[in-house]
Every structure is written in C-alpha cells, then in structure tokens.
Amino acid sequence: MAAGSAGEAAKRARELEIAEGRSRAEAATRVLQGQLTELRTLLTGTLDQDPYVPFARFKETLVVPDFRPSARLLTPLPAPRRETYLPTPPSGLGAVLPGRRRAYAADQAKGEEDYALAVEMHRSAEQDRQVDLERARAAYEQTVDREQERVRRQHAAVDQAAAGFAEGKRRAVADYFREVLAMQRYPERFPTGVKVAFLPADGELRVDIDLPLMGAIPEFESAEYMPVKKEFKHKKITITGRNELYQHVVAQIALRTLRCAFKADRTTIVHSVICNGFVDTVDTATGLDARLCLVSVQVPRAEFERLNLARLTPVDCLTRLHAKISKTPEKYQPVQPILEYPWDDLPYADELDAAAGLDHVKNLLDLDGFEWERLLLELLRAVPEFDEVRRTREFADGGIDLVAVNKTPFVGGRVAIQAKRYAPHRKVKIDAVREIIGSITQREFTKGIIMTTSGFTPDARLEAERLGVELYDGERMLWLLRHHLHREYTIIGHDRRKPPIKKPPAG
User: Fold this and answer.
1) Which CATH class is domain 349-490?
2) pTM for this model (two decimals)
3) Is the pLDDT of residue 502 over 60?
4) In the chain, domain spans
5) Which of 14, 247, 291, 382 has its CA 20 to 30 A from that of 37?
C-alpha cells in the first residue's frame, strides 16, 4: 500500500509539473504574440487617437504644497512650573528647629533663583522658536513666489508660442509639432528622437525621425514546454517573415508620422510633409558610426487625406506616394532622402528675420544680376566637391547658368547648374527640370543641378527624382552660404522692382 501511495504521489507531482510548464509556455507565447501584434498594428492601432494637443495642455499646473514646518517649530515650549523648583516645606519637628528653618529658607531662595533663570531661558528659547518659525514661513513663501513666477513665465512662453504658431512663425510651428510627435507612444525599445523644421513660404513641414534597429523585432513567435526534456522550446520567426515585419514597421512609422502631423494641425498651416526615417548604427565596412536613411517620403495634404489608413498596406502605400524605402532595411541599405535638411548650424528663419533689418544681412532678392552671378561663382568654388566652376555664355546656355566638375569618386563628372532667383511664393515647376535634362543630354554632362531661392512644386520634385536631377531650395542655399562663405543672407519677397543689372567693374 505504501509503495502504491508513493507512486500516485509521484504521478500527481509529475502532472502538476507538466501543467505548470505548459502554463508558463502559454504565458510566454501570449507575451510574444502581444509584441508581434503591437508591431503589426503600429498604425491601425492609433487611428482612433487624436494627436492634436491644444497649447493650454502644455502649460504646467501650479502645485503649491502646504506649509508644514517641523513639530519642533510648531509646538510651543512648555513653560517652567514654579512649584518644581521650590523645596518642600519642613513639617513636624523640622518646622520648629532653627537650623532646619534656615536651610529651608536658603533652599527656597535658591529655588526662586533657579525658577527665574528657567523662566528667562524659556522666554529666550520660545522667542528663538518663533523666529525660526517665521524664517521657515518666509522661506516657504519665497519658494511659493519663485514657483508661481516660474509657472507664470512658462505660461507666458506657451502663450507666446501659441501666438507665434497662429502667425505661422517657423520656430513656434516647428516646436509645436516636435512636441506633438515626441508624445507619440511607441514600444519601449524604440528610439524617440525627432527633428522638425517648418518653411512658411511653402507650408512645408520637414521631419527627421529615429527608427528602431532590427533588434527591436522579436526572433521568436511562440514557446512550447517539452515534458521529456523538462525545458522550453521557442519557435523562431522565419528570416523572411522577420525581415518583412521590419520593413512593415518602418513603413508604418513613416505613415503614422505623416498622419500625426496632418491630424494635429487644426489650422491647416501645413500644406505638405517631408518625413525622413533614420537608424543610428555602425558601418560594418569602416567600423564608424553611421546615420542611414531607410525611408523618405513627401506628401501634400490633399493627397494624404484621400488615403484609407485602416485598409491600406503601408509598404504599397509608400510606393504609391513615390516614397523612397529601403528594399533591404534589415541590412540597413540606405536610400537618398528626397530632401536632406541641413540641421547642423542652421538657425530658424525668425532669427534671420529679426536680423534682416541689419546692414550686414543681405536679401538675396535685392542683388542685381552681376552680384548674383558673382555670389554663385564664389559659393560653388568654396564647396569642396566642385572644381573648375565657371559661368556659361549669355544667350547660348540652353538653361545652364554654371558648369563645374564634381570631384567625388565614381559619381563625379561634369555638372550643369541652373540657378533661379525667385521670390519665395514662386515655385520652380516641372518645366525647369525637363529643360535642364534636355540641355545636359545634348552635352557631355553627368548630372544636372537646379538651385533656387524659393522652392519646388511636388511635380518638379517627383520628376527630378525620376530623372536624377539634384534640387537645392532656398533653405539649402542659405545654409551653403553660411556654411562655406560664413555669410548671413535672407530671402524676403517684396513688391518693389529688382535693381537694374549693373555692368561688371572694369578690369
């Protein structure tokens, strides 16, 4: 009987162990499936969320703690009691003995003296306590005043930002959308870096976002308990499936960023959005840090609002939007951004606008023809990639204003440059792209570049991407002038006529 009972107990223990192992495997599978579902629904899982954030929500709430000094400061010190200092009167025979009466009188005088000293010490200590209490109260009130002033300044800054946003100020608009995009919730292992710039003349928002590395994609999709080996076995996601999921994640993040920007814009100040997604990794060929673009897309508002985000396939959608998306993002194969924003030392336009009235800041639109050509020559000769920069003959340039040699290995060669000095509201159209392509195909040029003080229409950008024409808008022009010539310029349109063309000085 004892042997049978032991066998039954061992069997029950084994069954319990298997049940517990399977339960843990099921729990691990639920976690893995939850992670995969979260990655597959990065876009659709947020379509019911409104990314709009009113400026009032950026204001800090004033929190003033109660005044809570220590118990020592709050509690008055107990006053000394006279009877505790006086001796007990003699009684019986001691009350009539002269020596005992004299001793009692001396003790009583000493007690009165000690009591008077105790009263004085109590008065002094109580006075010190009240002084310390008032100091603590004053320090508390100063802290409250400082906090109120800090919050008041923060509220004023938010109000100023809101007013700047309403006026379309570049810094205010960029700061708002940076805060909104930074508030978007992604899985814990995802980076959260975002950079934003805004071009008022184009109503164009430019966003650079950080993308997760391939390591953010789980390697396993389920877990199973193996009773014989008493261990867990994890089922791996296929290499193809994991790569496709990573590409799906990259595409979702790009579309989610576009949606957030457009949906958070209640004033429709943003007409189009350019989104570039980057990973920070190590170039295995050099061992150096590398920041690589895996997706780049530019979308006008009207075109994006026609999309049904709940039903589309993200990668297919980006393809339809003429986005550049890495075909093998898992290998971090980069794409050339549609427009790479020069973040490193470019101040916002309101800083330039504030300096525009100063004598040393020139408006490119105020230059005459000779000054404009001379500035372009000087600028391109200062760019390290270019050599042998010269201008073409007038009236026979075929739309080419300057020619140069690009010294970059493998991709260099003769370059044709077309420069258009337009007011910010006048965009370079698709005809200009086709014109320079027609000109360089008839000559021995390897690339065409169009530089302008304004911007480009969406059709012009798409055609330039298709034909391999490089585009430099006004923003990049200002950056090049600052970066290579160390000069500040601005681009401000106005109604007055341009200065007449001056003749070059003699000699």
Assistant:
1) alpha beta
2) 0.68
3) no
4) 7-51+184-331, 71-166, 349-490
5) 291
